[in-house]
Structures are given as C-alpha cells and as structure tokens.
UniProtKB/TrEMBL annotation:
A Gene Ontology term for the protein's cellular component: cytosol
Gene3D superfamilies cross-referenced by the UniProt entry: Glutamine Phosphoribosylpyrophosphate, subunit 1, domain 1 (3.60.20.10), HUPs (3.40.50.620)
Swiss-Prot/TrEMBL catalytic activity: L-aspartate + L-glutamine + ATP + H2O = L-asparagine + L-glutamate + AMP + diphosphate + H(+)
PROSITE patterns assigned to the protein according to its UniProt record, in alphabetical order: GATASE_TYPE_2
Source organism: Asparagus officinalis
Top class in the EC scheme: ligase
Protein name: Asparagine synthetase [glutamine-hydrolyzing]
Lineage, top ranks: Eukaryota, Viridiplantae, Streptophyta, Embryophyta, Tracheophyta
Length: 573
C-alpha cells in the first residue's frame, strides 16, 4: 500500500482533486483526479453495477450522453463522462473503443477473470506508457516517472491501440483511410470544413468547471477562440459560468504573439489575460520542464517552457480547462517548409507522417505542460470526425501556391473567410505561420542557445557520439537538454521514447529532401525555412563551419490512469 501511495505522489500534479485506489488480488488501479465533469460524484476508479468491472481513465468522452442512451438497461453511479466505458465493456467486450469520441487513456480490470484492457485515443492526445517488470508484472502510467524505476523495459503506448492481457499484445482499433497514406480525392468544400470544425469546438464546451482558450494570435488559436466565442452563449457551460469567454497568451515583452493575441481578443470581446516572461524566467524553468515533459527533443522543450509558465498562471486564476489549437499544422501542412513540397503526393504523405508523430511532439507538450499544474487542454483540430473531413480533401487544394494567392493552410483560412459575418480580421486570418516557440519572442530561442553554450564546451561536443550514441545531440542546446534528461531518466528505455533525426522548421527527416539548402541549416525553428519565413535566419555558413542548430514543439489532459496492477500487473494513470 505504501508503494502505491508513493506512485500516486509522483503523479499528484496531474490530478490534485482526488486520489482513488482499487485493489483486487495483486492487481491495483490507482487514480489521480482532475475533476472537470461531475466534480461532486465522479471520483475514480469507476465501476459497473456490481463492481466487477473497474476502470481508471485520463481524458474526456464527449459523446458519453449518447452512449448512455444506447445502454438503457444499465444503471450509473455517477455523472462522469468516463463511467460509460465500464458499461460498454460489459456489453461489447474489447470491441467498443472505436465508439468513444474523445481524448483518453484508460485501464480496465475485469475482476471476473483477472484480465485487463488498456487503450489510448486515436492520435495520442493523452499520454500513456507501458512497462514490464522482471517479476512478470505489467505497468501502465500516464507519465514515464510512474514506472521507469520499476520496469526492466518500458515504452510509449502506441496511439489508436488497445492492449489486452489475454493476448499480451497490441491491436490497432483506429484505422481511418488516411492512415495508410492513400491519396484522397474529395473536392474541397469550405462550408463542409467549417461546419466540421465548429462541431468539434462545440462538443469541447462540455465542462462543469471554469475554462478559457489559449490565444497566441495565430490562425489556429484565433479560430478556436472565434468559434468558441460564437457558440458559447447556447452551451450548458454558459449556464454555469456565463457567456464571457476568457483568453490567455504568453510571450516575451513585445513579442509577435502578444500583439496579435491582444488584437484578436479585442475583436472577439474576450476577457484577455496576457502573461509576460523573461528569457531568464524560461531558463530557470528548464529543468522542471524536462522533468514534467519527459523529453530531450529541442523543439518540444523550446515550446513547452512558455506554455508551462503560462499554465501555472492560468491555474492560479481558478481555471481548470483550456481549449487550444494543436494539430492544424499537421493536418493542413501549415509549417513553412511545406512551401517546398514538390507535389500533392509528397505533401499528403508528409501530413500523414506528422499526424502519426503528434503524440511525441505537440500532444506531448500540450498535455504535460498543462498537466504539470492540474490544467486540462482540449484540442478540437484533432477531433476524429474533423480529421476524417480534413484528411479526405484532395491535397492539391492544400498545396501552397503563392502565384495563386494561396499561402499555408489556405483551405482552412478560406473556410472561415466570411465577408457577411467575419470570424476574424482579414490580416489575422491570413497571418503567416509562427511556431509557438518563435511567436513568444525570437530572443527566446537565441537566449536558450546562448545559455547552452555556457554549459556545453566544444570538447564535450567532440565526444557526444560516445557519450550519447543513440540520438546523438548535434548542437550544444541539444546536448544541454540531454544531460538534464538523463539525470532524471537514466534508463535506456527512457531515451528510446524520444524521437530523433534531422529536422528543418519541424519537418520530418524525409521532407528535408525537398530543398538541398536545408541540410546545412537543420533547426526546428520556423525561421530556418530559408526563403519562406519573413524573418528567416541569414543563409547558413558553409557546412564545414556551421554545426547545425537544434531540435523540438505544443497540447491536452485530465483524470489520470495511475498505478494499476493485474496478476503481477501494476498499472499507473
């Protein structure tokens, strides 16, 4: 019991509202709750009628009311959106996960046969790890720190998959048409795309606690804010908390995001909260950020740090949930390097690769940077139904063609370009893409590089491949982050959870082939997209002089799956 309690403490930040534990034999399900839906009675673990089915869930099930109506003979103990999972399993066994519309990681224990099932949402909005102990135990946890000291091997639980203790293997439950990267051919219909996104935002207004929107002033967060503001009045959330939407932005003094966000907030009439941080504030938080985000990826750390600082401020205001704009750039090819896509086939393949990797980058950042302070982030662009619509569009329509006036994410911008009832000012609707780590202020990244250079010597870099043979850091910034990460997570399994490879402006390694100049200017910042970004870096020095630059990037969260065990199985949430 003491052991499980210690594991709960490690993940207390994710769910400060309640600690729940269920033991059945040598199986344990432990849960740290962040109460968003039914705070009064929805404490976890959750059960079916006779308590033979036990479940712990991290996430939100947006269609839980519809699912309850499909099961009229079942009696529910709480108003929690997650309780329906136990009843669905009772009716359908393991074949129910694709009925869930939401973001989730869960572990379900069937006490009748001592078997358990674990599953993760379609693209990995919520985090989940799985590990195996030398004693035959199986562990699951929402964060790596919940199992890294106890498992001989652990790894990222793959998104869109289900794990069954009966077979001891994974099975993919999410199989959309885009997943096999077949080129779609549906004609672009701006009104269909607009309706799909509005529906995605509306369903995320499901909350019993105060909430707001993250607003950077870029296209994606501005659309989230605009649609939320437009539909809030008719929602149940408005009945409890009023129709006045709150928006939040973070940046260095004078940064591009702060200026744009303030203008959007004034246009939409939100109660706007602007948070400032200094480069030193960010540097001072780096170790905490790496501990919570659990990565050494450069872009992710760059973008997670201001988000981590902002989340703390938001939570201090009594807000427990925010809606954010992650996922749009991956779906629509919004990163500036997509300007160089040679054809629609390459464009589409790259969007598919980016979506499949989201759980290692933006979803990881958005969830853990907010969860560190007990704040939940929801991401409507990653709604399953919206993705089905957006990823079925012929990629020829998504291609960036300046000669035709089509900039990045043109199809999304056009869908919300309503002359009669505008969602946003034109210049915001057509603002150039800024990556979050750039938009908070260009001096942020420059300051990080300068700080790393003080702690990592040229001599250390000469031996980098011997010290870190896997994902060898190629810049001092990357080396600095790696040293901190390895101090917290020294296991080989831990370092294998982090993706690697070269990147230009957040591209995959494959897309670097699109422009020969990029191989000498490897940096995840959007400013590395030479000839595209309005504030691009100067052209790179010859490769014999320039040592590339760095690598990593922003997402969502809720009640967590903490320590659980089955016959020798420990599962964490």
């Amino acid at each position: 019991m003491f052991y499980t309690m210690w594991k709960e403490i490690l993940l207390k930040h994710r769910g400060p509202d309640w600690s729940g534990l269920c033991q059945h034999g040598d199986c344990f399900l432990s849960h740290q709750r962040l109460a968003i839906i039914d705070p009064a009675s929805g404490d976890q673990p959750l059960y079916n009628e006779d308590k033979s089915i036990v479940v712990t869930v991290n996430g939100e099930i947006y269609n839980h009311e519809e699912l309850r109506r499909r099961l009229p003979d079942h009696k529910y103990r709480t108003g929690s959106d997650c309780e329906v999972i136990a009843h669905l399993y009772e009716e359908h066994g393991e074949d129910f996960v694709d009925m869930l519309d939401g973001m989730f990681s869960f572990v379900l224990l069937d006490t009748r046969n001592n078997c358990f099932v674990a599953a993760r949402d379609a693209v990995g909005i919520t985090p989940l790890y799985i590990g195996w102990g030398l004693d035959g135990s199986v562990w699951l946890s929402s964060e790596m720190k919940g199992l890294n000291d106890d498992c001989e091997h652990f790894e990222v639980f793959p998104p869109g998959n289900l794990y069954s203790s009966r077979s001891g293997s994974f099975r993919r439950w999410y199989n959309p048409q885009w997943y096999n990267e077949t080129i779609p051919s549906a004609p672009y219909d701006p009104l269909v795309l607009r309706k799909a996104f509005e529906d995605a935002v509306i369903k995320r207004l499901m909350t019993d606690v105060p909430f707001g929107v993250l607003l950077s002033g870029g296209l994606d967060s501005s659309l989230v804010a605009a649609v939320t503001a437009r539909h809030l009045a008719g929602s149940k959330a408005a009945e409890q908390w009023g129709t006045q939407l709150h928006s939040f932005c973070v940046g260095l003094e004078g940064s591009p995001d702060l200026k744009a966000a303030k203008e959007v907030a004034e246009y939409l009439g939100t109660v706007h909260h602007e948070f400032h941080f200094t480069v030193q504030d960010g540097i001072d938080a780096i170790e905490d950020v790496i501990f919570h985000i659990e990565t050494y990826d450069v872009t992710t750390i760059r973008a997670s740090t201001p988000m981590f600082l902002m989340a703390r401020k938001i939570k201090s205001l009594g807000v427990k949930m925010v809606i954010s704009g992650e996922g749009s750039d991956e779906i629509f090819g919004g990163y500036l390097y997509f300007h160089k896509a040679p054809n629609k086939e390459e464009f589409h393949h790259e969007t598919c690769r980016k979506i499949k990797a989201l759980h290692q980058y933006d979803c990881l950042r958005a969830n853990k940077a907010t969860s560190a302070w007990g704040l939940e982030a929801r991401v409507p662009f990653l709604d399953k139904e919206f993705m089905d619509v957006a990823m079925s569009i012929d990629p020829e329509s998504k291609m960036i063609k300046p000669d035709l006036g089509r900039i990045e994410k043109w199809v999304l911008r056009k869908a919300f370009d309503d002359e009669e009832n505008p969602y946003l000012p034109k210049h915001i609707l057509y603002r150039q893409k800024e990556q979050f780590s750039d938009g908070v202020g260009y001096s942020w990244i420059d300051g990080l590089k300068a700080h790393a250079a003080k702690h990592v010597t040229d001599r250390m870099m000469l031996n980098a491949a011997r010290i870190y043979p896997h994902n060898t850091p190629t810049t001092k910034e990357a080396y600095y982050y790696r040293m901190i990460f390895e101090r917290f997570f020294p296991q080989n399994s831990a370092r294998l959870t982090v993706p690697g490879g070269p990147s230009i402006a957040c591209s995959t390694a494959k897309a670097i082939e699109w422009d020969a100049r990029w191989s000498n200017n490897l940096d995840p910042s959007g400013r590395a997209a030479l000839g595209v970004h309005d504030s691009a870096y100067d052209p790179p020095l010859p490769s014999s002089i320039s040592a590339g630059k760095g690598a990593a990037m922003i997402t969502n969260k809720k009640p967590r799956i903490v320590d659980v065990a089955t016959p020798g199985v420990v599962i964490s949430t």
